[in-house]
Amino acid sequence: MAYADQQMSGNKITALIIVAILHVALGYALVTGLAYEAYKKVKEVTAAVNIEEEKPPETPPPPPPPKDQPPPPIVAPPPPISFNAPAPQIETVTTPPPPAPVFTTAAPPPPPPPPPPKFQPKGPAPKGSPGNWATSNDYPSRALREEREGVTGFRVSVGTDGKVTSCEVTRSSGSPDLDQATCDNVRRRARFAPATDGEGNPTIGSYTNSIRWVIPKD
Q: pTM for this one?
């Protein structure tokens, strides 16, 4: 379209130039007295020049579609997208740290058992009869007047020399004076063969017994 417009404008300019030249010639002819002859010539030339505008070429119509071509497929519109879906839940999983390594040390071997004793250990043995350690003559006078009786249990510690080093009441008779008389007489009168260890050597030991306090009959 732009090329045709340029060509048409060039033709118009050419025609205008020719008309202008003819007008100048006509004026000159009028001045010189040849106006009539010149007018005829101008009229003939003007009649001979036919300015026609060139029409732009027409665009041909599009070719018809082929008859055997199938119709275009029908595309269904995409389903609507719903934005009301719940947000995904994010679960945080905490991975516990690996357990610390356990270092085990082998237990030391048990010590060897001690050698068997050469002698059987023995506890202290009383010398004489324990019934002579406390007699009716040793009965506390107040307990005798009140006619109180009972049994006092005792335990004594015996040194390596066979003598009593301490005495304690393990079972009370119910009368403090009878309990006190028991330990006093045992410490004073009791004698022992000392205890011995596995080598047969004297060692400290303990002895346990009891005394029954009974009011003598006349």
A: 0.46
